[in-house]
Protein backbone atom coordinates (compact mmCIF):
# COMPACT_ATOMS: atom_id res chain seq x y z
CA UNK A 1 0.00 0.00 0.00
CA UNK A 2 1.54 3.30 1.09
CA UNK A 3 5.30 3.77 0.99
CA UNK A 4 6.78 4.79 4.35
CA UNK A 5 10.18 6.34 5.09
CA UNK A 6 11.72 5.69 8.50
CA UNK A 7 12.02 9.00 10.36
CA UNK A 8 14.79 10.40 12.57
CA UNK A 9 14.67 11.61 16.14
CA UNK A 10 16.13 15.12 16.30
CA UNK A 11 17.85 16.39 19.42
CA UNK A 12 16.62 19.91 20.10
CA UNK A 13 19.04 22.30 21.80
CA UNK A 14 17.99 25.64 23.25
CA UNK A 15 19.32 27.74 26.18
CA UNK A 16 15.93 27.54 27.92
CA UNK A 17 15.99 23.76 27.77
CA UNK A 18 19.57 23.53 29.00
CA UNK A 19 18.81 25.89 31.88
CA UNK A 20 15.90 23.68 32.93
CA UNK A 21 18.10 20.59 32.91
CA UNK A 22 15.80 18.63 30.63
CA UNK A 23 16.16 16.97 27.23
CA UNK A 24 13.83 17.58 24.27
CA UNK A 25 13.81 15.21 21.31
CA UNK A 26 11.58 15.51 18.24
CA UNK A 27 10.22 12.57 16.26
CA UNK A 28 10.25 13.97 12.73
CA UNK A 29 7.17 12.28 11.30
CA UNK A 30 6.92 15.17 8.86
CA UNK A 31 9.61 13.27 6.94
CA UNK A 32 7.78 9.93 6.64
CA UNK A 33 6.42 10.67 3.15
CA UNK A 34 6.82 13.55 0.67
CA UNK A 35 3.06 14.23 0.48
CA UNK A 36 1.22 11.98 2.97
CA UNK A 37 3.23 13.20 5.90
CA UNK A 38 3.06 12.98 9.65
CA UNK A 39 -0.05 11.62 11.33
CA UNK A 40 -1.93 11.63 8.01
CA UNK A 41 0.09 8.59 6.90
CA UNK A 42 -0.93 6.64 10.00
CA UNK A 43 -4.56 7.77 9.79
CA UNK A 44 -4.90 6.73 6.16
CA UNK A 45 -2.96 3.45 6.23
CA UNK A 46 -5.76 1.17 7.42
CA UNK A 47 -8.53 3.21 5.81
CA UNK A 48 -6.92 2.46 2.45
CA UNK A 49 -6.57 -1.20 3.34
CA UNK A 50 -10.27 -1.34 4.27
CA UNK A 51 -11.28 0.38 1.04
CA UNK A 52 -9.26 -2.24 -0.87
CA UNK A 53 -10.86 -5.05 1.14
CA UNK A 54 -14.32 -3.75 0.29
CA UNK A 55 -13.29 -3.46 -3.36
CA UNK A 56 -14.10 0.26 -3.42
CA UNK A 57 -12.70 2.25 -6.33
CA UNK A 58 -13.47 5.76 -5.06
CA UNK A 59 -12.46 7.59 -1.87
CA UNK A 60 -14.56 10.55 -0.72
CA UNK A 61 -13.67 12.87 2.10
CA UNK A 62 -14.18 16.38 3.48
CA UNK A 63 -12.00 19.40 4.24
CA UNK A 64 -11.42 23.11 4.06
CA UNK A 65 -9.56 24.98 1.34
CA UNK A 66 -6.16 24.56 3.06
CA UNK A 67 -6.80 21.10 4.52
CA UNK A 68 -3.79 18.88 5.20
CA UNK A 69 -6.21 15.96 5.09
CA UNK A 70 -7.45 16.82 1.58
CA UNK A 71 -3.86 17.23 0.41
CA UNK A 72 -2.74 13.90 1.89
CA UNK A 73 -5.81 11.93 0.84
CA UNK A 74 -5.49 13.05 -2.77
CA UNK A 75 -1.85 11.90 -2.81
CA UNK A 76 -2.69 8.60 -1.09
CA UNK A 77 -5.48 7.90 -3.58
CA UNK A 78 -3.12 8.61 -6.46
CA UNK A 79 -0.39 6.39 -5.01
CA UNK A 80 -2.79 3.51 -4.37
CA UNK A 81 -4.81 3.79 -7.61
CA UNK A 82 -8.10 5.06 -6.20
CA UNK A 83 -10.27 7.76 -7.67
CA UNK A 84 -10.85 10.53 -5.12
CA UNK A 85 -13.44 13.19 -4.39
CA UNK A 86 -12.97 16.09 -2.00
CA UNK A 87 -16.01 17.87 -0.58
CA UNK A 88 -14.61 21.34 0.06
CA UNK A 89 -16.12 23.81 2.54
CA UNK A 90 -16.93 27.18 0.96
CA UNK A 91 -17.23 28.67 -2.50
CA UNK A 92 -14.73 27.96 -5.24
CA UNK A 93 -12.29 30.84 -5.68
CA UNK A 94 -10.11 31.10 -8.78
CA UNK A 95 -7.23 30.77 -8.99
CA UNK A 96 -7.40 27.94 -6.49
CA UNK A 97 -4.76 27.87 -3.76
CA UNK A 98 -1.69 25.57 -3.85
CA UNK A 99 -3.31 22.96 -1.57
CA UNK A 100 -6.33 22.47 -3.82
CA UNK A 101 -4.27 22.76 -6.98
CA UNK A 102 -2.08 19.91 -5.75
CA UNK A 103 -5.17 17.83 -4.95
CA UNK A 104 -6.47 18.35 -8.48
CA UNK A 105 -3.10 17.44 -9.94
CA UNK A 106 -3.32 14.16 -8.01
CA UNK A 107 -6.63 13.47 -9.73
CA UNK A 108 -9.01 14.49 -6.95
CA UNK A 109 -12.36 15.88 -8.08
CA UNK A 110 -13.21 18.92 -5.98
CA UNK A 111 -16.84 19.55 -5.10
CA UNK A 112 -17.46 22.88 -3.33
CA UNK A 113 -20.43 23.24 -0.97
CA UNK A 114 -21.71 26.08 1.19
CA UNK A 115 -20.76 26.17 4.85
CA UNK A 116 -24.38 25.37 5.69
CA UNK A 117 -24.29 22.25 3.51
CA UNK A 118 -20.90 21.29 4.86
CA UNK A 119 -22.31 21.09 8.38
CA UNK A 120 -24.39 18.15 7.15
CA UNK A 121 -21.26 16.07 6.48
CA UNK A 122 -22.33 13.46 9.05
CA UNK A 123 -26.00 13.44 8.02
CA UNK A 124 -27.20 10.15 6.49
CA UNK A 125 -29.49 11.85 3.98
CA UNK A 126 -26.70 14.20 2.85
CA UNK A 127 -24.28 11.29 2.46
CA UNK A 128 -26.86 9.34 0.45
CA UNK A 129 -27.21 12.33 -1.87
CA UNK A 130 -23.45 12.27 -2.41
CA UNK A 131 -23.62 8.54 -3.22
CA UNK A 132 -26.31 9.20 -5.80
CA UNK A 133 -24.11 11.88 -7.33
CA UNK A 134 -20.68 10.22 -7.17
CA UNK A 135 -21.31 6.48 -6.92
CA UNK A 136 -20.30 3.80 -4.44
CA UNK A 137 -17.43 5.50 -2.62
CA UNK A 138 -15.49 4.65 0.53
CA UNK A 139 -16.11 7.45 3.03
CA UNK A 140 -13.23 8.87 5.05
CA UNK A 141 -14.47 11.45 7.59
CA UNK A 142 -13.14 14.99 7.91
CA UNK A 143 -9.64 14.84 9.36
CA UNK A 144 -9.54 11.09 8.73
CA UNK A 145 -10.50 10.13 12.29
CA UNK A 146 -12.32 6.81 12.60
CA UNK A 147 -11.64 3.30 13.95
CA UNK A 148 -9.11 2.61 11.19
CA UNK A 149 -7.26 5.84 11.91
CA UNK A 150 -7.12 4.86 15.59
CA UNK A 151 -5.60 1.51 14.62
CA UNK A 152 -2.89 3.19 12.57
CA UNK A 153 -2.06 5.78 15.23
CA UNK A 154 -1.98 3.07 17.91
CA UNK A 155 0.55 1.21 15.79
CA UNK A 156 2.64 4.37 15.63
CA UNK A 157 2.32 4.77 19.40
CA UNK A 158 3.57 1.22 19.93
CA UNK A 159 6.58 1.94 17.72
CA UNK A 160 7.61 4.75 20.07
CA UNK A 161 8.11 2.28 22.93
CA UNK A 162 11.59 1.64 21.55
CA UNK A 163 12.57 5.19 22.57
CA UNK A 164 13.36 6.37 26.09
CA UNK A 165 11.30 9.36 27.29
CA UNK A 166 9.16 10.53 30.21
CA UNK A 167 6.66 12.86 28.52
CA UNK A 168 5.18 12.95 25.03
CA UNK A 169 3.72 16.12 23.47
CA UNK A 170 1.68 16.38 20.27
CA UNK A 171 -0.92 18.76 18.77
CA UNK A 172 -4.62 17.91 18.88
CA UNK A 173 -7.32 18.79 16.35
CA UNK A 174 -9.97 16.08 16.02
CA UNK A 175 -8.46 13.88 18.75
CA UNK A 176 -7.85 10.80 16.60
CA UNK A 177 -4.06 10.88 16.65
CA UNK A 178 -3.70 11.37 20.39
CA UNK A 179 -6.34 8.72 21.12
CA UNK A 180 -4.46 6.20 19.00
CA UNK A 181 -1.11 7.07 20.55
CA UNK A 182 -2.59 6.80 24.06
CA UNK A 183 -3.91 3.35 23.14
CA UNK A 184 -0.56 2.32 21.66
CA UNK A 185 1.57 3.53 24.56
CA UNK A 186 -0.76 2.57 27.38
CA UNK A 187 0.57 3.97 30.63
CA UNK A 188 4.23 3.97 29.56
CA UNK A 189 4.62 7.74 29.95
CA UNK A 190 2.73 10.99 30.44
CA UNK A 191 0.99 12.04 27.19
CA UNK A 192 0.11 15.71 26.71
CA UNK A 193 -2.00 17.01 23.85
CA UNK A 194 -1.84 20.66 22.85
CA UNK A 195 -5.24 21.77 21.60
CA UNK A 196 -5.16 24.02 18.53
CA UNK A 197 -8.82 24.91 19.03
CA UNK A 198 -10.62 27.07 21.57
CA UNK A 199 -12.57 25.29 24.27
CA UNK A 200 -12.14 22.28 26.52
CA UNK A 201 -14.35 19.79 24.66
CA UNK A 202 -11.52 17.70 23.22
CA UNK A 203 -11.01 15.59 26.34
CA UNK A 204 -14.55 14.27 25.95
CA UNK A 205 -13.89 13.57 22.26
CA UNK A 206 -10.72 11.64 23.07
CA UNK A 207 -12.51 9.67 25.81
CA UNK A 208 -15.15 8.63 23.28
CA UNK A 209 -12.53 7.59 20.73
CA UNK A 210 -10.70 5.52 23.35
CA UNK A 211 -13.98 3.78 24.18
CA UNK A 212 -14.41 2.94 20.48
CA UNK A 213 -10.89 1.55 20.32
CA UNK A 214 -11.24 -0.34 23.60
CA UNK A 215 -14.55 -2.12 23.02
CA UNK A 216 -14.37 -5.48 24.74
CA UNK A 217 -11.31 -4.53 26.80
CA UNK A 218 -11.35 -4.27 30.59
CA UNK A 219 -9.94 -1.66 32.99
CA UNK A 220 -9.41 0.93 30.26
CA UNK A 221 -9.24 3.78 32.78
CA UNK A 222 -6.13 2.31 34.39
CA UNK A 223 -4.57 1.55 30.98
CA UNK A 224 -5.24 4.99 29.53
CA UNK A 225 -5.13 7.21 32.60
CA UNK A 226 -1.90 9.16 32.14
CA UNK A 227 -2.88 11.83 29.60
CA UNK A 228 -4.17 15.40 29.48
CA UNK A 229 -4.94 18.17 27.00
CA UNK A 230 -3.66 21.72 27.33
CA UNK A 231 -6.18 24.33 26.18
CA UNK A 232 -4.33 27.64 26.62
CA UNK A 233 -1.95 27.59 23.65
CA UNK A 234 -4.37 27.94 20.72
CA UNK A 235 -3.36 31.56 19.89
CA UNK A 236 -6.94 32.55 19.13
CA UNK A 237 -8.38 29.28 17.85
CA UNK A 238 -8.14 26.95 14.90
CA UNK A 239 -6.01 28.40 12.08
CA UNK A 240 -5.66 31.64 14.09
CA UNK A 241 -2.24 33.08 14.83
CA UNK A 242 -0.54 35.88 16.70
CA UNK A 243 2.51 37.93 15.71
CA UNK A 244 4.39 36.24 18.54
CA UNK A 245 3.61 32.78 17.17
CA UNK A 246 4.69 33.69 13.64
CA UNK A 247 7.93 35.16 14.98
CA UNK A 248 8.52 32.01 17.03
CA UNK A 249 8.04 29.81 13.94
CA UNK A 250 10.56 31.90 11.99
CA UNK A 251 13.05 31.62 14.86
CA UNK A 252 12.66 27.84 15.02
CA UNK A 253 13.35 27.55 11.29
CA UNK A 254 16.21 30.06 11.03
CA UNK A 255 18.06 29.29 14.27
CA UNK A 256 17.24 25.63 14.88
CA UNK A 257 16.48 24.23 11.41
CA UNK A 258 13.08 23.08 12.64
CA UNK A 259 10.22 23.71 10.17
CA UNK A 260 6.83 24.24 11.82
CA UNK A 261 3.38 25.18 10.58
CA UNK A 262 1.12 27.84 12.17
CA UNK A 263 -1.95 25.61 12.61
CA UNK A 264 -0.55 22.63 14.52
CA UNK A 265 3.15 22.15 15.15
CA UNK A 266 3.98 25.81 15.77
CA UNK A 267 1.52 25.88 18.65
CA UNK A 268 2.80 22.51 19.82
CA UNK A 269 6.41 23.65 20.09
CA UNK A 270 5.36 26.95 21.66
CA UNK A 271 3.55 24.97 24.40
CA UNK A 272 6.59 22.77 25.03
CA UNK A 273 8.88 25.78 25.42
CA UNK A 274 6.41 27.56 27.71
CA UNK A 275 6.06 24.49 29.92
CA UNK A 276 9.84 24.18 30.11
CA UNK A 277 10.04 27.84 31.19
CA UNK A 278 7.40 27.22 33.87
CA UNK A 279 9.46 24.42 35.36
CA UNK A 280 6.83 21.78 34.57
CA UNK A 281 9.41 19.00 34.26
CA UNK A 282 11.81 17.58 36.80
CA UNK A 283 15.49 17.93 35.96
CA UNK A 284 16.77 14.99 33.98
CA UNK A 285 13.44 14.42 32.23
CA UNK A 286 13.16 13.67 28.51
CA UNK A 287 10.31 15.16 26.50
CA UNK A 288 9.44 13.56 23.17
CA UNK A 289 7.72 15.94 20.74
CA UNK A 290 5.87 14.34 17.82
CA UNK A 291 6.11 16.45 14.66
CA UNK A 292 2.83 15.58 12.92
CA UNK A 293 3.67 17.15 9.55
CA UNK A 294 1.25 19.59 7.94
CA UNK A 295 3.96 21.72 6.40
CA UNK A 296 2.34 21.81 2.96
CA UNK A 297 0.38 24.97 3.71
CA UNK A 298 2.95 26.75 5.86
CA UNK A 299 4.43 28.97 3.12
CA UNK A 300 1.02 29.94 1.76
CA UNK A 301 -0.23 30.68 5.26
CA UNK A 302 2.85 32.79 6.00
CA UNK A 303 2.29 34.83 2.83
CA UNK A 304 -1.39 35.36 3.59
CA UNK A 305 -0.59 36.44 7.14
CA UNK A 306 2.00 38.95 5.97
CA UNK A 307 -0.46 40.41 3.43
CA UNK A 308 -3.13 40.80 6.13
CA UNK A 309 -0.65 42.28 8.62
CA UNK A 310 0.78 44.96 6.31
UniProtKB/TrEMBL annotation:
Annotated ranges, domain Tryptophan synthase beta chain-like PALP: 4-293
Active site: 67 (nucleophile)
Sites of N6-(pyridoxal phosphate)lysine modification: 40
Domain of life per record: Bacteria
Keywords, in A-Z order: Pyridoxal phosphate
Pfam families to which the protein is assigned, alphabetical: PALP
InterPro entries reported for this sequence: ACCD_DCysDesulf (IPR027278), TrpB-like_PALP (IPR001926), TrpB-like_PALP_sf (IPR036052)
GO molecular function: D-cysteine desulfhydrase activity
Cofactor: pyridoxal 5'-phosphate
Family listed: Belongs to the ACC deaminase/D-cysteine desulfhydrase family.
Protein name as it appears in the record: Pyridoxal-phosphate dependent enzyme
Organism of origin: Ohtaekwangia koreensis
Amino acid sequence: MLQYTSTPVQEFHHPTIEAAGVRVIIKREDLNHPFISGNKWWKLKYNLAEAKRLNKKILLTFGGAYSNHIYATSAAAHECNFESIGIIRGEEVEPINPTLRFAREQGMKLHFVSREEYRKKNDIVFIQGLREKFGDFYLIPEGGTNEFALKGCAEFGESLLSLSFDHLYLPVGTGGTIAGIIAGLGNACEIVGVSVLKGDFLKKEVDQLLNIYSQGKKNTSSIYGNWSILTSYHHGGYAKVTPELMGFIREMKQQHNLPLDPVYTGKLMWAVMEDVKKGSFRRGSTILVVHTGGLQGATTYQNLYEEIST
